[in-house]
Description:
Elements: H1 5-15, H2 20-31, H3 34-50, H4 61-82, H5 89-94, H6 107-128, H7 132-143, H8 148-155, H9 159-176, H10 178-183
Amino acid sequence: xxxxxxxxxxxxxxxxxxxxxxxxxxxxxxxxxxxxxxxxxxxxxxxxxxxxxxxxxxxxxxxxxxxxxxxxxxxxxxxxxxxxxxxxxxxxxxxxxxxxxxxxxxxxxxxxxxxxxxxxxxxxxxxxxxxxxxxxxxxxxxxxxxxxxxxxxxxxxxxxxxxxxxxxxxxxxxxxxxxxxxxxxxxxxxx
Length: 191
């Protein structure tokens, strides 16, 4: 039985929209770009709404939304590989950064901000350097807090595969961030 447009919208808002922050956080970590992440989330919700009648209420909505997002991301990647972004030379040469110094921030504030961003950048870089199958599991389990079962459903793979990829992804991160942790005193110095 098909629902009316109003019922469909209310059900979609009640079931799907509460997961927007989770989807955005994952999209941001996957794309490493705010605008691309926003576009990906928007595309995910548009597709989810369009195919809402195929969603079975009471099943795992997060896994369904993540699957839509994953497929959208893969399709976008394939499109970009076939048709890479083109840069128009005249437009590129017209972008000049200027700084007058009138609105200059306190140098100490700039250093503190830069240091804070450096920490995040090193960790984000280490996560981004993971192979995609490990990165996905680490982000969903360790950062977003999804259960192994939810991740297995999202990735359409057995639970044991999720556990294995998570273990291997954590091991790769531990290696990549060992020097970072040692410099900050989080790992004891070796003699």
